[in-house]
Design brief:
Number of domains: 4
Helix content: 40-55%
CATH class of the largest domain: Alpha Beta
Order of helices and strands: EHEHEHEHHHHEHEEHHEHEHEHHEHEEHE
CATH topology of the largest domain: Rossmann fold
CATH superfamily of the largest domain: P-loop containing nucleotide triphosphate hydrolases
CATH architecture of the largest domain: 3-Layer(aba) Sandwich
Structural class: alpha/beta
Number of helices: 16
Length: about 425
């Protein structure tokens, strides 16, 4: 099922949302606008939006019966194929709504899973989204068994939707979940091996809302050729590149999956190995679209970092796309975030990168300055008979001064504390540390 799209068999969607007392009008509208963008990104069309304000959720139908009558009327008038609920639904609520409305009903999680399935390119991403979809489907088999039958080529379709068929489906899904988890354990072991090989390097990870411009900034900083598309969740895999070939210690920059409000826990759990590049980073670059809902995006990013146990990692905020906002708005942002970096990084080959070279260079300097401020200096004398250890020294540190004396090679080294400790371990008793 790795790259199948279980849920998208509709073209025209009606968006509906429940506004509870703790949610403001702007929060509800912002979330619906985001859901609209998700729908358009997979080729769907939004026929309209309906919001109901209620003090509590209806346990069986989520919405009140009066609003459901309005929704049913709109389904008929606008020839709607699916109702998309911008809230999480229980399996029973989904079943009840589909029966009452006589229309396919999906919640926000299903739409996001569909987009991830469409955009998954590597085997790891396909495994991760396959696991997330399977775990989402398991408690929803009564209402969604038809999707499973399609994926298996119609196996058992003639037996109907009885308990016997549902139990077979449950067994099929559980086996698939076990298989996916086993394969992902192997992937994680390979990732840990790569992590050990990179332990001498500094790790910087790009984070932020989906479509904020992370991949474009990654390309500009590293001169790499990552795929850049103006759509949600174009990047689902972690990609790592050197920031500068000659820097010591080496700085690695990683781009990974973007965030979104109410990102399903199934997705966060399944993509945990990919998001490990965030958790293991020494520094995070938080890319923010200056022309979007900044407060909500900052809050969403903070929540995901908490889920990943990465909330304590230092962050440099990067406001991108400032050419789309007014000078007054930019001034307000600069006063609110005095330590942030501001600019516009365009995806446009050489012309785009040259136009934004000042922004890119400022960002590069900020990254290197962050690490330079945390460097420690050590002076050592290395005996000539152990000069083969020079390779380790140059690999793990920056050599600020070298003096070939009669007693040995006197060197002043600068490195992050962790690399200095690694140097001491590599050199053993073959050097003298000067005080």
């Amino acid at each position: 099922m790795s790259d199948s799209r279980l849920f998208k068999n509709w073209d025209r969607a009606l968006l509906v949302s429940l506004q509870l007392p703790h949610r403001s009008n702007s929060e509800v509208q912002s979330s619906l606008d985001e859901l609209s963008s998700l729908v358009y990104s997979i080729g769907g069309k939004v026929t309209g939006q309906i919001v109901q304000a209620r003090t509590q959720i209806h346990p069986a139908y989520y919405f009140g019966k009066g609003k459901l009558t309005e929704i049913k009327s709109r389904i008929h008038i606008d020839e709607v194929d699916a109702v998309l609920v911008d809230n999480p639904l229980s399996p029973k609520q989904t079943q009840n709504l589909e029966k009452l409305l006589d229309c396919e009903v999906l919640d926000r999680t299903q739409v996001i899973l569909d987009i991830f399935a469409k955009n998954a390119r590597t085997s790891e991403a396909k495994l991760q989204i396959g696991l997330a979809q399977s775990e989402y489907l398991l408690p929803r088999l009564v209402g969604l068994w038809k999707h499973l039958d399609r994926e298996r080529g119609g196996i058992g379709a003639s037996r109907g939707t009885g308990e016997k068929q549902i139990e077979k489906d449950r067994q099929f899904l559980r086996q698939r979940i076990t298989r996916y988890k086993s394969q992902l354990i192997r992937v994680e072991k390979e990732r840990n091996t790569q992590k050990q090989r990179r332990s001498n390097c500094l790790q910087v990870s790009l984070i932020g809302y989906t479509n904020a411009g992370k991949s474009t900034i990654m390309n500009a900083l590293t001169n790499s050729g990552l795929l850049v598309e103006d759509r949600l969740f174009a990047t689902l895999d972690s990609t790592t590149r050197l920031l500068e070939e000659d820097s010591r210690p080496k700085v690695l920059l990683s781009d990974t999956v973007g965030f979104i409000s109410n990102l399903p826990h199934e997705v966060i759990a399944a993509f945990r190995s990919t998001l490990a590049t965030v958790r293991d980073a020494d520094l995070l670059l938080q890319v923010i679209d200056a022309d979007d809902n900044i407060e909500e995006h900052l809050q969403t990013t903070s929540e995901v970092l908490e889920d990943l146990d990465a909330a304590c990692i230092p962050i440099i905020k990067v406001f991108n796309k400032i050419d789309r906002i007014s000078p007054t708005r930019l001034l307000i942002l600069e006063k609110s975030f005095p330590e942030a970096v501001f600019g516009s990084c365009e995806n446009g080959g050489k012309n785009g990168l040259e136009k934004n070279s000042a922004f890119v260079e400022q960002l590069r300097k900020q990254i290197l300055l962050f690490f330079n401020e945390r460097m420690k200096t050590m002076t050592i004398r290395l005996d000539y008979q152990h000069s083969q250890k020079l390779a380790n020294i140059y690999e793990l540190s920056r050599v600020d001064n070298i003096d070939y004396q009669e007693e040995g090679i006197l060197m002043t080294l600068t490195a992050i504390p962790g690399n200095l400790e690694r140097l001491r371990h590599h050199l053993g008793s073959d050097y003298t540390e000067m005080r």
